[in-house]
């Protein structure tokens, strides 16, 4: 399997993603520079966390117009797997590969903590090794993770089972008290209608090794391998 | 040279956490008649262009393409000679 990790000016989780793919799940991985402008010959593209282009204007807004982005759009439209983590999620909404937008956290704090998350849809290429409604622990670290979307689109997303992860407590309760940033319906991760593009605010790459205290995120990457092998 | 002053602001339906923080701060300073605060962005673009109509078209495109995210924001702008 061949993974690609896109590097924008300001990406800061690119090395973490590269490390997890190469050293933890032992698959082939390459960095993709933001101005790469050739057909993407990969099995999965990762848009990592960070502050692409300083997040000036809006998080992800400038990265969306990098030279590599039309190639990623083409890759996604042809069914390629794309996962955007944190700033990568923001870039995917800015480029309309995923619906909605991410605004400032409701409590105005930059949140950096462990967070329980419920896998509400395990029928995606990115979550197939989790149980349905399984509660997992993933780190979050963001200032603009408050997911907003208009009512009509939200209804469409619910019908198409595009809500993949929701913030919750350790017992799986999803409510205002277990919502760290004010996201509508406690949304932590969503996919597109076709299920091949996935965006999430939590960082699975930071919880893929026992050394880091938790391995719950590793199954995101193993699910991708599982999906690709069973295709 | 033309100067475009662009205002980008959140749609009414989108909550504005920084606006709420400033509202609370103003109230705590004693400005109790403040009802609501909305925060936005003020962007100035200088154009090497003399045709105001042409500049309006161009600035509209800039707003719709990059400066404003229509999912959550709206915009307005003024153009004047610099």
UniProtKB/TrEMBL annotation, chain A:
Keywords of the record: ATP-binding, Cytoplasm, Glutamine amidotransferase, Hydrolase, Ligase, Nucleotide-binding, Purine biosynthesis
Pathway noted in the entry: Purine metabolism; IMP biosynthesis via de novo pathway; 5-amino-1-(5-phospho-D-ribosyl)imidazole from N(2)-formyl-N(1)-(5-phospho-D-ribosyl)glycinamide: step 1/2
Single GO MF annotation: phosphoribosylformylglycinamidine synthase activity
GO biological process, alphabetically ordered: 'de novo' IMP biosynthetic process
Record GO cellular component, one term: cytoplasm
Reaction equations catalysed: L-glutamine + H2O = L-glutamate + NH4(+); N(2)-formyl-N(1)-(5-phospho-beta-D-ribosyl)glycinamide + L-glutamine + ATP + H2O = 2-formamido-N(1)-(5-O-phospho-beta-D-ribosyl)acetamidine + L-glutamate + ADP + phosphate + H(+)
CDD domains: GATase1_FGAR_AT
Places the protein is found: Cytoplasm
Keyword set includes Manganese: no
Location of the active site: 86 (nucleophile), 203, 205
Subunit organization: Part of the FGAM synthase complex composed of 1 PurL, 1 PurQ and 2 PurS subunits.
Protein function: Part of the phosphoribosylformylglycinamidine synthase complex involved in the purines biosynthetic pathway. Catalyzes the ATP-dependent conversion of formylglycinamide ribonucleotide (FGAR) and glutamine to yield formylglycinamidine ribonucleotide (FGAM) and glutamate. The FGAM synthase complex is composed of three subunits. PurQ produces an ammonia molecule by converting glutamine to glutamate. PurL transfers the ammonia molecule to FGAR to form FGAM in an ATP-dependent manner.
Cited NCBIfam families: FGAM_synth_I, PRK03619.1
Protein's recorded name: Phosphoribosylformylglycinamidine synthase subunit PurQ
Species assigned in the record: Caldicellulosiruptor changbaiensis
Gene name as annotated: purQ
UniProtKB/TrEMBL annotation, chain B:
Pfam families: PurS
GO biological process, any: 'de novo' IMP biosynthetic process
Coiled coil regions in record: none
UniProt superkingdom: Bacteria
Subcellular location: Cytoplasm
GO MF: ATP binding; phosphoribosylformylglycinamidine synthase activity
Enzyme class, first EC level, given as a word: ligase
Transmembrane stretches, start-end: none
Catalytic activity: N(2)-formyl-N(1)-(5-phospho-beta-D-ribosyl)glycinamide + L-glutamine + ATP + H2O = 2-formamido-N(1)-(5-O-phospho-beta-D-ribosyl)acetamidine + L-glutamate + ADP + phosphate + H(+)
The EC number(s) this enzyme carries: 6.3.5.3
UniProt pathway: Purine metabolism; IMP biosynthesis via de novo pathway; 5-amino-1-(5-phospho-D-ribosyl)imidazole from N(2)-formyl-N(1)-(5-phospho-D-ribosyl)glycinamide: step 1/2
Assembly and binders: Part of the FGAM synthase complex composed of 1 PurL, 1 PurQ and 2 PurS subunits.
HAMAP family in UniProt: PurS
Primary role: Part of the phosphoribosylformylglycinamidine synthase complex involved in the purines biosynthetic pathway. Catalyzes the ATP-dependent conversion of formylglycinamide ribonucleotide (FGAR) and glutamine to yield formylglycinamidine ribonucleotide (FGAM) and glutamate. The FGAM synthase complex is composed of three subunits. PurQ produces an ammonia molecule by converting glutamine to glutamate. PurL transfers the ammonia molecule to FGAR to form FGAM in an ATP-dependent manner.
Family to which this protein belongs: Belongs to the PurS family.
Protein name: Phosphoribosylformylglycinamidine synthase subunit PurS
Organism for this UniProt entry: Caldicellulosiruptor changbaiensis
Phylogenetic classification of the source organism: Bacteria, Bacillati, Bacillota, Bacillota incertae sedis, Caldicellulosiruptorales
């Amino acid at each position: 399997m061949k993974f690609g990790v896109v590097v924008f000016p300001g990406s800061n989780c690119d090395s973490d993603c590269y490390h997890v793919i190469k050293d933890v799940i032992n698959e082939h991985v390459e960095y993709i520079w933001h101005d790469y402008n050739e057909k993407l010959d990969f099995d999965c593209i990762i848009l990592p966390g960070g502050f692409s282009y300083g997040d000036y204007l809006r998080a992800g807004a400038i990265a969306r117009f990098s030279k590599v982005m039309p190639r990623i759009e083409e890759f996604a439209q042809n069914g390629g797997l794309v996962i955007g983590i944190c700033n990568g999620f923001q870039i995917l909404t800015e480029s309309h590969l995923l619906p909605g937008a991410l605004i400032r956290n409701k409590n105005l704090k930059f949140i950096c903590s462990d967070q329980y998350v419920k896998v509400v849809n395990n029928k995606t290429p990115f979550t197939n090794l989790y149980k349905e409604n399984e509660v997992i622990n993933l780190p979050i670290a963001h200032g603009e993770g408050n997911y907003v979307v208009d009512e009509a689109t939200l209804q469409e997303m619910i019908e198409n089972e595009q809500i993949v992860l929701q913030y919750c407590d350790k017992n799986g309760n999803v409510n205002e008290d277990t919502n760290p940033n004010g996201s509508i319906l406690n949304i932590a991760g969503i996919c597109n209608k076709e299920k091949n593009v996935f965006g999430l605010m939590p960082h699975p790459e930071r919880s893929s090794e026992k050394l880091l205290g938790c391995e719950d995120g590793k199954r995101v990457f193993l699910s991708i391998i599982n999906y690709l092998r069973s295709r | 040279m033309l100067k475009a002053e662009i205002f980008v602001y959140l749609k009414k339906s989108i909550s504005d956490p920084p606006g709420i923080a400033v509202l609370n701060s103003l109230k705590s300073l004693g400005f109790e008649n403040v009802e609501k605060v909305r925060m936005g962005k003020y962007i100035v673009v200088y154009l090497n262009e003399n045709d105001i109509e042409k500049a309006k078209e161009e600035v509209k495109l800039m707003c719709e393409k990059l400066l404003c995210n229509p999912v959550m924001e709206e915009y307005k702008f003024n153009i004047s000679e610099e």
